[in-house]
Amino acid sequence: MKPMSRIAMLCALAVIMTQVQASSLDLSSASPTAETSVQHQAAIGLLLAREHYSQAIRLVQTQPDYASNPQLQLQHAKALIGLQRHTEAISLLESAIHRLGPTADLYQALALSQFAMAEQAGLFKVRSYIKAGLASLQQAAQLSTEPATVKLKLLGFFLEAPAMLGGDQATAKQIASELQQAAPAEAAIARSMLHQQDEQFSQALAELDSQLQQTPNQLSLLVQKAKLLRSQQQDAAALPVYLKAAQLAEDAGARHQYLYQVGRSAAALTLEKDPAAYAEQRTTGIGALQQVIEFYQQGEGWSLHWARLKLAQLYLAIPDPDAAAMELQPVLALSAPPEQLAKELKTLQTRLKKQQRNQQESRG
């Protein structure tokens, strides 16, 4: 077997990371003893959702029960993860588990940071971080009051990870078999994931649609369906599914992430051969992204900048180069954007300059 290239390994790790997202950490499951603690945790949770991580850290550390409350420790760790300070997050989470006892949420957060460290590590350290992340995720599944949701993440790991990083198709199928005894939604998602891995996309979609006929407002099914459609570049079909998910989501952070996907799908349709045919979707996408931008204002994550870029892409499809340029201005001012953001920004700049030239020529 040929050794995996650094690029291929990073691509595999990026897929693994999508199986354990920071948004999956359940901050609503806290059971604090005082009403003020509930209010403070809700305030911190909203700061985290809006990606105001530094402010969340300052607030969480002022709580009188900070050192003894696992939910506050989790919220602190989530802010560190958002700031990409994974070494600190791992240290904090390991200490919290040792001092306060293990919980599923603490272990899921630990897995997230360990997988993130693997993505950043050199070739010789990748495996150790992946092994640690997998062990943490397995611990979370054992401790969770909703083990099926965590097992879906494990299923995704074993399906997507290369064998040299712990991937195992047989283990994935075993987990899928176990999930058939779980809640119907998780069972349907597991079957769909197996079909998708085998590139049987129509069967994968049929599994989700069949269960959605029984539970049409099941959020996890809708999100999985939208992801599957987008993976096949079926953005026109994915957009209304993401829109419905956003309407059903109770969590503000999740709701605005789904709205971003609405805008992202609409932006992808501008690259179709006949973009004018998708004027309605474009209008929907613009409205969704405007809500996203308002929600993430002054946030420290990348959601705000991605939303601005996609909104600019939609404005160029109108075409409205002046509005597009306004959205792109703060994105262009970023000193070190992520590689993919920088790549798409460069492409969009080229299109913007062309439209600006055409606009100037038409004016005279």
Task: Please give a handful of descriptors for the protein shown.
single chain, 364 residues, mainly alpha, 18 helices, 73% helix, disordered N terminus
Shape: globular
Major sheet characteristics: none
Can you count the beta strands?
0
Task: Report the uncertain regions.
Answer: 1-11, 22-33
Structural class: mainly alpha
Secondary-structure element series: HHHHHHHHHHHHHHHHHH
- The chain-level mean pLDDT equals 90
* Number of separate helices: 18
- Gyration radius (Cα, Å) is 21 Å
What is the CA-CA span between the terminal residues? 63 Å
Strand content: under 5%
Please estimate the helix content: over 70%
What does this structure look like?
The protein has 364 residues and is mainly alpha-helical. It contains 18 helices and no strands. Helix 13 runs antiparallel to helix 14. The longest helix is centred in the last third of the chain and has 25 residues. The termini are far apart. The N terminus is likely disordered.
List the helices and strands and how they pair.
Elements: H1 6-17, H2 35-49, H3 53-60, H4 70-82, H5 86-100, H6 104-120, H7 123-143, H8 147-160, H9 169-179, H10 184-197, H11 201-214, H12 219-231, H13 235-248, H14 252-269, H15 279-295, H16 303-316, H17 321-332, H18 339-363
Helix pairs in contact: 1-6, 2-3, 2-4, 3-4, 4-5, 4-6, 5-6, 6-7, 7-8, 8-9, 8-10, 9-10, 10-11, 10-12, 11-12, 12-13, 13-14, 14-15, 14-16, 15-16, 16-17, 16-18, 17-18
